[in-house]
Amino acid sequence: VQLQASGGGLVQAGGSLRLSCAASGRSFSGYTVAWFRQAPGKEREFVAVLYIGNMRTYYDDSVKGRFTISRDNAKNTVNLQMISLKPEDTAVYFCGAGRPILSSVRSLTSYGYWGQGTLVTVSS
What separation, in Å, do the N-terminal and C-terminal C-alpha atoms of the chain show? Predict the structure, then answer.
């Protein structure tokens, strides 16, 4: 599966952005897709996932209530709607696809396919 993340940009604190992860070469069908982010000088961290095993969403506490992950099977995309953005949300956002078990959906190593990342910059 080849992934392409898009939708990043520069936004003021309190603003919104919608990221999109598109698959090419193969459908997302059968894969769980998650969003991770990596801030400068930091490790890549989990943000959100829609787990196909139970079709439930899971979020890191830092984004809960502000970010929403959704899946559009017709368009073969997984989206991340982000509102009330904060400067600490500044990072490169990556989408990853894999077949994790539920207990591992937040783990970086559960995802074998990655997009190139899209930069989100939130100014204060």
Answer: 37
Could you report the per-residue pLDDT of 12-41, keeping only the tens digit for each? 999 999 999 998 877 788 899 999 999 999
Please report the pLDDT score of residue 12 as a whole number: 98
**How far apart, in Å, are the Cα atoms of 65 and each of 48, 60, 62, 73?**
11, 10, 9, 24
Closest CA to 21 of 103, 114, 119: 114
List b or e across 40-60, with b for residues whose CB sees 16 or more CB atoms inside 10 angstroms. eeeebebbbbbbbeeeeebbb
Question: What does the pLDDT look like over 72-94, one tens digit per residue?
Answer: 988 889 999 999 999 999 999 99
Cβ pair 36, 19 in contact under 8 A: no
Q: Are 108 and 58 in contact (CB under 8 A)?
A: no
Placement of tokens 């940009």 in the chain: 9
Close Cβ partners of 61 (under 8 Å, ≥ 6 residues apart): none
Amino acid at 112: G
Sequential DSSP letters for 50-92: EETTTTEEEE-TTTTTTEEEEEETTTTEEEEEE-S--GGG-EE
